[in-house]
Amino acid sequence: MSEWDDDIAALAMSDVEKNGLQVYRNYTKAFERDQAKKFAAEVNSQSHDVSRLNRVCDAIASDDERLIPVIACAFADEVLDEMYKREVAKGIPGGRNSLFSGYGPFSSLSKRIQVAYAFGWMSEDILKDMDSLRKVRNKFSHLWDHKSLSGYAEQAPTSDITPIETMFKEHEERLLLSGIENLDALGRLRIRTIWLLGRLYYESLLYPLALKKRLKPYVVLYREHKPDLLSQIAGVCSEFTRTVLREKN
Predict the structure, then answer these.
(1) Which residues neighbour 193 within 8 Å (Cβ) at sequence distance 6 or greater?
(2) pTM of the entire structure?
(3) What is the pLDDT of residue 103?
(4) Rounded distance between C-alpha atoms, residue 220 and residue 39, angstroms
(5) Low-confidence residues in the chain, pLDDT < 70
(6) How much is the pLDDT for 170?
(7) What is the CB neighbour count within 10 angstroms for residue 104?
(8) Alpha helices for the chain (secondary structure H)
């Protein structure tokens, strides 16, 4: 074998060692592709209803700006609650219900976010961004003067939500993400929250499944052989991205 990847070719190793390393890498990639295809086929064999995501994105795109963190957190709370109830094993001493009530580890949105982060059940940026919105929601719940909420989209932590347009830069035209940087802070917040909830919903369904199968979640969820559900969710998010862009222009 004389064709090596650039990084392998640059190593201070003998040709035999480089050949062995390249064979191992090629085998690993082929195995990952095969596993990703099987994972996608399994997911694609099931039906997924994205109508609920459609409704929440509609609300984020059009409702009063002060409701954005409230709506987003209510949706995230519901989705994470469903994820834990679906994935946590039955027969837990004391009963599963104790985990979701009182002071249990899944009894509030903040705890659900913390546990998912601690055990790697979802992409870290999604959980950090949801926690930012949660903090804003909590702040709103303790303020009676609505005028004091003016301009919150321009301030941290809301303004720090991951820019989806930079994450998918190579797909920005197809996903209608170009032009977001020209929107005001509220327009950017609406679109970034729409995509945040889309990714949250997608990963709540499939990230734990990938982990249980001992697969790399990012590889099977987002790369070449990704499930069709991602396209469905991207379609919903793109539709309401178009709605926000149209109303702002």
Answers:
(1) 60, 68, 72, 133, 161
(2) 0.85
(3) 83
(4) 7
(5) 1-2, 144, 146-148, 168-178, 248-249
(6) 55
(7) 14
(8) 6-9, 15-44, 51-62, 68-87, 97-100, 109-118, 124-141, 164-167, 185-212, 217-222, 228-248
Q: Which residue shows structure tokens 């830069």?
A: 169
CB-based burial of residue 141 (10 Å sphere; 0-12 exposed, 13-18 middle, 19+ buried)? exposed
The pLDDT value given to residue 195: 95
pLDDT of residue 43: 96
SS3 84: helix
Contacts of 115 (CB under 8 A, 6+ apart): 84, 105, 106, 121
Q: Is 125 left (phi over 0), alpha (psi -120 to 50) or beta?
A: alpha
Asked if residue 189 lies in contact with residue 68, where contact means CB atoms within 8 angstroms, the answer is yes
The confidence score (pLDDT) of residue 2 equals 64
Structural domains in the chain, CATH included, are: 1-46 (no CATH), 49-248 (1.20.120)
Residue with tokens 């909420």: 149
